[in-house]
Amino acid sequence: MTRLLIERCDHVVTVDDAGTELAGASILAEDGVIAWIGTGAPPGEPDERIDGRGTIAIPGLVNTHHHLYQTLTRAWSRDVGLFQWLVALYPVWAHIDEAWERAASRVGLSLLALSGCSTSTDHHYVHPEGAGDLLTVEIESARELGLRFHPCRGSMDLGERDGGLPPDSVVEPTEVVLERSREAVERHHDPTPGSMLRIAIAPCSPFSVTERLMRESTELARSLGVRLHTHLAETLDEERFCIERFGMRPLELMEEWGWLGDDVWFAHSVHLDAKDARRLGETGTSVASCPSSNLRLGAGIAPVRTYLEESVPVGLGVDGPSSNEASDLFGEIRQAMLASRAAGTERGLTAREALRLATRGGADVLGRHDVGSLEVGGRADVALFGVDGLDHAGTAADPVAGLLMGEARRVRHLIVEGRAVVRDGHLVNADEDEIAREGHREGRRIVEAFG
Ligand SMILES: [Zn+2]
After folding, report:
1. Cα of 102 vs its chain's centroid, Å
2. What is the pTM of this model?
3. Closest Cα partner for 358 from 326, 378, 341, 383?
4. 238 CA → ligand 1 middle, Å
5. Angle subtended at Cα 403 by Cα 113 and Cα 30, rounded to the nearest 5 degrees
6. Could you read off the pLDDT of 5-47 as tens digits, one per residue?
7. Do 371 and 363 touch, CB atoms closer than 8 A?
């Protein structure tokens, strides 16, 4: 048995049902599971110790929406809305290959880990013919770094020729998508408790996918026991597209196609109304809210308070780095709180509510009940942020709120499944400088070849 003791944290924010926060507490992990949390002496002798003094421990963060491949097309198409942004970038993304995906996923997942994220999804929907096995490449990156990973086998099968937005060169035939999605689940998906790897099936969006693929994806995912993900109601352009093409608003269309249920999560859901929110809550359908991306693309602000009132599970996501140059999930906590207050503080989120979205909420969205909180019996995924430096001087009135409402430049330590992934602000399992060099080299190659 491997026993890791995180000793004497200034505060442990458990994010349990009661919102328990303990001052001067320690956490003992045994074989990847939290065995004890308390303020006294832990039982037995640990094999390894981490000094928690000067830190606040929170559950490892859970990222519910991302497109890792976009890490190498940051700072492109900078000042336009979603549809123009997509039309500018699709022809660049059409050149993706395994070297691109490897560099992008290593940089992107490293940045997530350094922001305190222990579990991430990825929505990879660009699979041009001959690009290679991009899903397996990013799975290897997550394994190398030591992160819990829930990648989606994404897809697009509605090209320009058939009235879709993406060019025909980046879409796949419907049959091929369904077959490769099945293969991805059979090859990689691990449903067991404490799983480090689960697959979801994720057609991209109403304007890049056929009705047939949307309908058959639900049948396939449900027969395999995996979750379903797609973009929904990100912009008003999308709403207009759905009304013109199908005579229905986005959520009505999803209901028509069998896409409501507790095994489904939608990215964004900015433009849904109170009736839609009630329907999400009634069906247990989840939302991955990505406030920085929504603001960057001028899409709007998701009605998160309304979703919470309707018992909709809500998590946070950084979204793809082409529409949020930072892969900083900790930063999304503050961003979610600030965005929710744009119309006043009355219905805005508190800092602790925003933290709950990034932890418990995200775990619910991904269908995980063993991560997202610090409780005995749960997986030992812990993020420790230093609060003893310049950034947090003067936050003694409420150090937890001071951390969440301010800025955390890097996690000090990140533990995933009882093992250190970040120690003293640096990756444990990979060389950050080498990953950076690879990312810069590949990013320059893309600009020179396709910019
Ligand atoms: Zn997205």
Report:
1. 18
2. 0.98
3. 383
4. 13
5. 50
6. 999 999 999 999 999 999 999 999 999 999 999 999 999 999 9
7. yes
C-alpha of residue 414 to centroid of ligand 1, in Å: 26
Q: Are strands 48-51 and 55-59 parallel, antiparallel or unpaired?
A: unpaired
Are 67 and 101 in contact, with CB atoms under 8 Å apart?
Answer: no
pLDDT digits over 65-80, tens only? 999 999 999 999 999 9
CA distance 416 to 32: 8
**8 backbone φψ class: left, alpha, beta (φ>0; ψ -120 to 50):** left
Measured in Å, residue 43 CA sits from the centre of ligand 1 at: 45
Structure tokens at 244: 């013109």
Residue 409 C-alpha to ligand 1 middle, in angstroms?
Answer: 24
* Euclidean distance between CA atoms 392 and 383, whole angstroms: 17
How many whole angstroms from 66 Cα to the centroid of ligand 1?
6
Burial 345-363 (b: 16+ CB within 10 A, else e): eeebbebbbbbbbbbbbbb
